[in-house]
Amino acid sequence: MILSIDIGGTAVKLGLVTREGEIAARHEASVSFDGYKTPILTTVIREARLFLERENTPVEGIGVSATGQIDDRAGVVIGTNGKIPGYEGARIRDELENAFGLPVRALNDANAAALGECFAGAGKGAQNALMLTLGTGVGGGIVLGGRIFGGARGIAGELGHFTLYQDGAPCPCGKRGCFENYAATTALVRAAKAATGEEDIDGRVIFARAAAGDAQMLAVLDRWINDIAAGVTGLVHIFNPEVVLIGGGVSAQEELLMKPLRERVLKGVMPRFAEGLTIRRAALGNDAGLIGAARFFAENS
């Protein structure tokens, strides 16, 4: 059994995961309960101890899926964009190995989700896959030859931060026109507010109105999907995947999002890139990171 730990910005999820990707037990706790006065890793270690004591199950090691830019060779947080106080520089691998006397492997949460989906989810069996999670931002992961592609330091896969529009809107990362600024669900909501002049509007309202035939919302959705499709088309040309997986709550919108996105990407890529290419909704939800972290441990231990 592998102890999987999924560290997010507000909560940590823990699971006991088999090498086959089955989650046998779960636990969750807040990491922001006191405004991060308690370091995240202090909370993670405390909760992991409580979880292991409760389950009383031997584990062979620990796999960690963590928010931020994670050097997956050293298991260190090397970038966060300053979003979580005191988190950058956290030595995940060293601290957990010292605390539990077990081998530890750590990677970025979006990469873990992509690996999990290709091991036990919607991309199962795929050797070459892309995963995009559309939410507050755009998360990404790249699987090549059946293994997560981490690049030189394990931080590859920032698919939200390539330039879609050279003179586009400023991005918190410091660049302009990033894909995330146009493909995230926050971008959809922002466009809908601008189009309607309404402030009390969210994704659920947008999709509900569009489903009812609201021309204004359908037009906003159309532009948003065009931007997503443009980015995905470029990524397909670079990586030539078998499957593109779309995660995030909006991926449940088959008729209003997934179907038109699939059609536009398959039409937009060069013909040979479309052969055998599938675009589908990710299947594992919040379990993807736990399963991917366990798989990463199993592959690298």
Commentary on this structure:
The chain is built from ten helices and twelve strands. The protein has helices at residues 40-55, 92-100, 109-120, 180-183, 185-196, 203-211, 215-239, 254-268, 271-274, 288-299; strands spanning 2-7, 11-17, 23-30, 61-66, 69-71, 76-79, 104-108, 129-134, 138-144, 147-148, 243-247, 278-281. Strand 1 and strand 2 (11-17) form a beta hairpin. The longest helix has 25 residues, at 215-239. The model has no long low-confidence stretch (mean pLDDT 95).
Spell out the blueprint of helices and strands.
Layout: E1 2-7, E2 11-17, E3 23-30, H1 40-55, E4 61-66, E5 69-71, E6 76-79, H2 92-100, E7 104-108, H3 109-120, E8 129-134, E9 138-144, E10 147-148, H4 180-183, H5 185-196, H6 203-211, H7 215-239, E11 243-247, H8 254-268, H9 271-274, E12 278-281, H10 288-299
Parallel strand pairs: 1-4, 4-7, 8-11, 11-12
Antiparallel strand pairs: 1-2, 2-3, 5-6, 8-9, 9-10
Helix pairs in contact: 3-10, 5-7, 6-7, 7-8
Q: What's the short version?
A:
The chain has helices at 40-55, 92-100, 109-120, 180-183, 185-196, 203-211, 215-239, 254-268, 271-274, 288-299, and strands spanning 2-7, 11-17, 23-30, 61-66, 69-71, 76-79, 104-108, 129-134, 138-144, 147-148, 243-247, 278-281. It is α/β, with parallel strands linked by helices and 301 residues long. The model has no long low-confidence stretch (mean pLDDT 95).
